[in-house]
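Input (structure):
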């Protein structure tokens, strides 16, 4: 899902989605910010939001799948790499 080009609106949209606290919303925030970073480096605010969202997502993923945090992070990273490869095509 493309993010708004306006940094201020993008920050508002992402903050609203992050507050939803659902697993799906966290996945989408991580996916969308990661993809946004493929085209243009993230600013400090977006980078912090992505780091925090990834930490929470990894913890939830690990708990749901019975994995270590490191293994959950590896699985998430692998899925994001697949998305990047598909995006590049």
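Output (sequence):
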């Amino acid at each position: 899902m493309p993010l708004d080009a306006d940094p201020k609106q993008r920050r508002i949209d992402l903050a609203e989605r992050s507050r939803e606290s659902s697993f799906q919303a966290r996945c989408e925030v991580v996916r969308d910010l990661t993809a946004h970073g493929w085209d243009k480096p993230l600013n400090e605010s977006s980078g912090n939001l992505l780091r925090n969202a990834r930490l929470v997502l990894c913890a939830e993923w690990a708990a749901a799948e019975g994995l270590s945090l490191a293994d959950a992070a590896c699985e998430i990273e692998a899925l994001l790499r697949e998305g990047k490869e598909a995006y590049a095509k």
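Notes: The CA atoms of residues 52 and 58 lie 10 Å apart. The radius of gyration is 13 Å.
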